[in-house]
Structures are given as structure tokens and as C-alpha cells.
Amino acid sequence: MKKLLFLCLAFIVSCKTSVSDQSSADLKPQILTTSSQGGAESEGFVIIKDQQQLLSEIAKRTTENDGDKQGYPPISSKNKIIIYDLGSFNSGDHRITEIKKASVSNNVLTLDVPEYKSGGMEIMMISKPWILVSVPTDKTFSSVKITYSK
């Protein structure tokens, strides 16, 4: 009887673990664009509410000379769009080009990105990188955090 109870308990625990792991596994954010210039002085984010706000936020960050003008996807009921400013850096290219892993816990969307590696001697130039990311709307969060890993 104890073995049966233990087996049932082990089965329930294994089901619980796989369900919670699966919820973060289907969170696949997509980088829509990233730039090394045009972001804010300090780190922060904006969750975009409509297409007009998206175009306004992008206009703040780009110039007429930017050759990287592209059509941005319309905001849909399936995706949330986030603009994340990384802050100000003295040198190097700190653009985020890959998201290794993403998860939501305690109302915080955590994006795990590769750590920036310096190439040695670099030209001293202040950069203010930013990133435009799309995430599924079924995940609820009120804050965004970027973590760096090797």
C-alpha cells in the first residue's frame, strides 16, 4: 500500500514539473529589430499598446539617415511588442542579436542573452542600444529583465 501511495505521489510530482517547464518552453520571443544607437540614457522598457505608439517610439530612436527602415509588423492579439533600452555604453557594439532563453515568473519576463565579449582595443564611442521584441500575449508580465550568460 505504501509503495502504491509513493508511486502515485511520484507520478503527480512528475506531471506538475513537466507542466510548469512546458509553459516557459513555448515562450519564444522574436527579435524584430536591434540597433546600437538611438536608445535612452538609462535601462528601461515600454510595452507597446497600439500601432501608433509603435511607430512613435521607433521614430524617436531612428533618424532620416538610417538605412535600416523596414516595415514593422502590425500589433495583433497574439503578440505583445516590447521596446527595451539597454542604457548607455562607452565603447563596443552592445546590440542583442540572440535570445537564448525566456521565462516568466512573478510577473517578470526574463530574457537570457549572450554576454557581451569585448574584442580588445575598441574605438571609444558612446552607444545607446535598443531592441524591439515580440512575445506571445498569453504570458502576463508587468516587468522585463535582461540577464547575461556565457
Defining traits:
2 helices, 23% helix, 150 residues, flat, alpha+beta, 9 strands, 3-stranded mixed beta sheet
What's the arrangement of strands in the largest beta sheet?
A: 1-8-3-2
Unreliable segments of 5+ consecutive residues: 16-24
Q: Write the H/E string, N to C.
A: HEEHEEEEEEE
Kindly report how far apart the N and C termini lie: 48 Å
Structure description:
There is one protein chain. The chain has 150 residues and is an alpha+beta fold. It is 23% helix and 34% strand. It is built from 2 helices and 9 strands. The longest helix is centred in the N-terminal third of the chain and has 24 residues, at 2-25. It is flat, with a radius of gyration of 20 Å. It starts with a helix and ends with a strand.
List the helices and strands and how they pair.
Elements: H1 2-25, E1 30-35, E2 44-48, H2 51-61, E3 79-85, E4 89-91, E5 101-105, E6 108-114, E7 124-127, E8 130-136, E9 143-149
Parallel strand pairs: 6-9
Antiparallel strand pairs: 1-8, 2-3, 3-8, 4-7, 5-6
